[in-house]
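User: Before I run my own analysis I want an independent prediction to cross-check against. Here's the chain; please return only the structure tokens and, at the end, one sentence I can use as a sanity check.
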Amino acid sequence: MTRIAIVLAAGQGKRMKSKLYKVLHPVCGKPMVEHVLDAVKGASCERAVVVVGHGAEAVRARLGDAAEYALQAEQLGTGHAVLQAKPQLGDIDGVAVVVCGDTPLVTAETLEALVALHEKEGAAATIMTAELETPAGYGRIVRGEAGEVLRIVEQKDCTPEEAAIREINTGTYCFDNKKLFAALSQVTNANAQGEYYLTDVIGILQKQGERISAHKTLDPAEAIGVNDRIALGEAERLMRRRIAAKHQTNGVTLIDAEHTYIEADVVIGADSIVYPGTVLRGRTVIGEDCVIGPSADLTDTVVGDGSTIRQSVADQAELGPECSVGPFAYLRPGTKLAAHVKIGDFVEVKNAVVGEGSKIPHLSYVGDAVVGANVNIGCGAITANYDGYNKSKTEIGDNAFIGSNSNLIAPVTIGSGAYVVAGSTITHDVGANDVAIARERQVNKPGYAEKLRSRAKAKKERDQ
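Assistant: Structure tokens:
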């Protein structure tokens, strides 16, 4: 049976008090609505229509062709929002999952279970419910003696007995698609808010003798809808815990999960260790047997098996296996390290390829460069890649040695096996196995230091 999804994302989110449209607020590095889309696709929904309103263009720009779109020009309630998808989905014979775009904690597994129960029981509608310790503010699920759903009662309409019910309506549903749109045509706005409510569809279907089912999620967190910054922070906290548990289950050691930030799309291999203070963002991929942190900050970075990164920042970088980075290194976009490369303290690398076994141990800048294998770049060495107008490349051949405090003025090539003497400023190519010395000859003046001190003392006395 065809599965489709309708994601409600048209609300403005005034309580967020933000210039950013509500469903685009990120939770663990990904906009809320994107988490929801991932969940419906994970539940085998073949098509997904996102109903947009406020901030429609921003949502389309973010999601691109990951979804179809329907516009709710006026926000007239949840039933009215779903009805906007009728031109695209109304004639489909199948099941429709309806979910809010501000519920980032809903999972594909729960939606799959919701649809499975719906199909098994031949229901016209199936409600996703949750059991809360404090259900105040939510609609209650009233069941019959056989466990069937009798009705949904909103908080303000509850009797004392109904108010004591802890099973609540999460606002996520599964419907027989054609019956959903047929019932929506009968929904009115005869209520205090003057809006068309999706929940009214449940009552309409019941009056028609249709079966209404309910699936209770095992994780009440999936019921959280984010309407303000407090709820956003809670969703972030719960998502972080969920992500951490996933990695731990897959064989990753998190020394202090509460003080480690891992975004939703990060991949970490088994037997890797992540120390506290570490931030892993975007589509970072870490191999097996790595040691990351403490206090590493990686964004969209690939780390090969067995590598170590301590107290360092990497952004859009690639590390081969068995690399060592840090402490206090900065790998900028375009950095590519081969196997067994060492990047030490206070080293910055940008748009540079560093060959296998090469070492840049400390206090150096290597930018717009190709560095061969088994190269040693001494303390304080830099590639001067920018002349104020153009970026130029430095090339260093295999087995070269770059002495401390050397300046390589690009464009320049250092041949394989060449030796650049410490303190040199290199402006011309150095051939293979050549030794390059580019510095003033040292001159010592015997006793001259005392003369300089005497002059300085006399000047100070005159100035006083």
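Sanity check: The longest strand covers residues 167-176.
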